[in-house]
Amino acid sequence: MIETEVRDDVRTVRLTRPERRNALTPAALDELAAAIEDADEPVVYLAGAGSAFCAGADLDAVADLDDEERARAFARRGQRVARTIETAESAVVAGIDGAARGGGVELALACDVRVATPAATFAEPGVTFGLFGAWGGTVRLPEVVGLGDAMDVALSGRVLDADEALRAGLVSRVVDEPYAVADELAGNDHAAVRAVKARLRDDADRETREREEADAFAELAVERAGTRNEDSRGREEN
């Protein structure tokens, strides 16, 4: 249920199970992780087919979790996929059109940039049927929107429209065509995009992060200077 397409330095990874609102089975989670791991393009665009982004975990798979060991393994599987998205060298853009629910929200939270269409809606409905998002949602949601909004969203299970998601910081833009944002990012210097993502994602202590930030900047600056010097020599020779 995962399809990939590469165009103009952007790899599109699309969930293609529209009849189930792109709900993810364990096998689909593995396919998704592999599609992200295989990417060597500077930008990955994650989207869903049909009228939904992703409804989260397939409820039939959840219904089969009848012992703690299997349930824990299922949660860890989803966490690994989210971590794969988060740690990918490529910048990952979530293009959210239609419903994002539960695990769909959690996968979007792992992306570097979340862009919604006006038709997008968001919810963490687990509490309404005795569960909660365990693909890293309780970790990333407060990091992204702050503790107050995270408590409201996760404890109520209510649905947010695109404008409310934008206000909360759950998405950074509401646009008619989210792919255009991925294309915009891919138009920047690829090495710089990768370096900036790595630095912003670094969770080491502040001093270490600042030192590594300086190292990454120096590497890019030297590379850029070398390119400019080569261009200058080429002009002189001509």
UniProtKB/TrEMBL annotation:
User: Per UniProt, what is one Pfam family of this protein?
Assistant: ECH_1
Q: Under what name is this protein listed?
A: Enoyl-CoA hydratase/isomerase family protein
Top-level taxon of the source organism: Archaea
**PANTHER family under this entry?**
ENOYL-COA HYDRATASE, IP11341P-RELATED
Query: SUPFAM superfamilies this protein is in?
Result: ClpP/crotonase
Q: According to the entry, what is the taxonomic lineage of the organism?
A: Archaea, Methanobacteriati, Methanobacteriota, Stenosarchaea group, Halobacteria
Could you say which protein family the record assigns here? Belongs to the enoyl-CoA hydratase/isomerase family.
List the biased-composition ranges (Basic and acidic residues): 201-214, 221-238
